[in-house]
Structure formats: structure tokens, C-alpha cells
Amino acid sequence: METIQKRVKAFSKLGDFLSQFSQQGITEKKDIEFNDLFFGGFKHQLKLAKENNSWFTEENLLFATENWSKALTIEQLDKWLETTSFSTTPKQVAIIMAGNIPLVGFHDFLSVLIAGHSVLVKQSSNDKHLLPFLAKYLEYVEPDFKGKIQFTEGKLTDFDAVIATGSNNTARYFEYYFKDKPSIIRKNRNSVAVLTGNETSTDFDNLSEDVFRYFGLGCRSVSKLFVPKGYNFDDFFKGMFTQKEIINNVKYANNYDYNKAVYLMSEFDMLENGFLMIKEDESYASPIATVFYEYYDNDDDLKIKLYEERDNIQCIVANNFLPNEIKFGQTQHPNLWDYADGVNTIEFLATI
């Protein structure tokens, strides 16, 4: 238990360090350990991450670091781990990370180390700057981590278990390639919102955050709406208008123009407001600058559908519709115990 507490304390110190990098700005604090070595360096890594991936705007990078600083407290970490017993022999766990949003693989990284294992990380080229630097900070605040964190760009070798995140196609490859190892293989998932017609303007303002944060690239980003027959989208579009400045991002604007042209040439019916299109479609994964919608006849049928198609869905945003729903505006604020794909990573790591 004492060893676990040392690891918890180390990650809480990392949370303190990250608290200097928030949406309110980057502000150096005086009481952060090893700040003289790492503060300026991490500012530079944020700059490199932004230059390397134009989806990683400063706003989204700082949103991610602020979220992690709030999660990495002793109170949050203890609550997350309170029901798990770590008595297994330390293993080498490989992680294949996605790169769709900043630090998207950090939860897996945290989970492996907090469980007492060593980690072998294969990063996405789209998100390669931040995590190695934060790993080095961890080694300074807790020297026991030295030798337990490796990064590789080559073929993964000498590992006991694997956590891999990718598309549905790469997942099939992962499942075959890692069939002899304990594994968590994650596939494509998207998030949905259930609208009833009783939403307030505040609900829609909040929903705009679920739709547009990270340009809709996250698995927790809302890419599809379920709406009752005859639904009027006026209030939805009014709420989305709070995010109108997103069209000033060149890469987003290019995607918007391209997808709009495709829809128009294909003569698809769609509605748009100058920076967002909505289109009736049964699919869950919508292109950038597009949200799909689907009509439902009654609540019970929709609840059955959502249950049957749960393997395609990461989050369900709603208001008093389902027990496991997420409130409007909260999809990008997961707790440590809100696991991707609903698979308890810590339980997996405690039993390998």
C-alpha cells in the first residue's frame, strides 16, 4: 500500500505541475517541484505539439492539460483506486496510442504505472511531444519510475500484455497479432445526444461544447443526434452558434467546404449554418463539420436501439433519459473511473 501511495503522490505532483497550463493562460507558480527544469521545457513542447498537428490548437492543448491537472489529485486518485487490490507481479505492458486529441493515451499510461507495472509506449506521430516530457517529470518526482517507462517507434517486443487503440480495421489486425497476450483492444466509437424537444437554451449552449471541442475528433465528441419525429432544429442551431468562431480555423474550414461540396454534388438533404452541417444518417461516425441525426418514434424503442448498438457508442448525452447518461456539456470532462469502451483498465491490470 505504501508503494501505491508513493505512485499516487507522484502523479498528484504531476497534476500540480500541469495546473500551470490552463485555459486561463500559462502562469508559472513558485511551489512546484523541479519547475526550474521543466516549466520552460513544457511550454516548448506545447508549441511543438501545436506546430506538428494543426488540430492541436493552443486552446485545445490547454483544455487537455487543465483537465488532467484537475483529475490528478490525491483525492481523485484514491477514490479511483479504493476498491482495487494490486498484488500481481509487475509486468511489462505495451500501449499503442491514438493521436486524435492531445494526451489521448494518458489514461492508459497512468493506469499501467499506478498499477505497478512497467510501460512500453508506441505513440501516434500526431501526438508525440507531450507525454515523453511528462514521463521525464515523473521520473524526477519519483525515482522509482526510472527504468519503468520506455517509448519506441519500432516494433513492439518483450511485453506481457497490451492495450491498443485504433480504427475498426486496425483492431482486427491487433486482435490477430496480439491473440496470445492479455489485451484490451479498442475500436471506433462515437458519442450521441438524445434530444426530446424540452431542452433549454443553456442545454444547447452546453451541447455545443460536446460537439465542437477538439473539432469533434474525440470518441467522446457528439457526432450524432437522436430527435423525435417532426423535430425543429432552430433551437439546436441557436445553441451551436456560440461556437461560430471555429470556422476561422483553416483546417476546419477546408473540411467544412469539402464535405459541403460532396453533399451538394450528391444531392443529399442537409441543413447548415455556415460552419456546421446536419444530415439524416443512420451512421454514428460523421465527417468533420457534420453531425448526423436520426428520428425516433418513442422513448422505449430508442432505449432498446441504444442498448443493442452500445458497442458503437462511447457516451450518451441526455437529460433524464437513461441511468448512465452524461449531462450536456460534460463529455470531455471524464472522471478517472469513466473508462473508454466501458472496459475497466485497472481491473485488467490488477489481474494480468
Automatic annotation (TrEMBL):
GO molecular function, one term: acyl-CoA dehydrogenase activity
UniProt xrefs under InterPro entries: Ald_DH/histidinol_DH, CoA_reduct_LuxC
Keywords recorded for this protein, A-Z: NADP
An individual GO BP term: bioluminescence
Top-level taxon of origin: Bacteria
SUPFAM superfamilies listed in its UniProt record: ALDH-like (SSF53720)
Name of the protein: Acyl-CoA reductase
Organism the protein comes from: Tenacibaculum holothuriorum
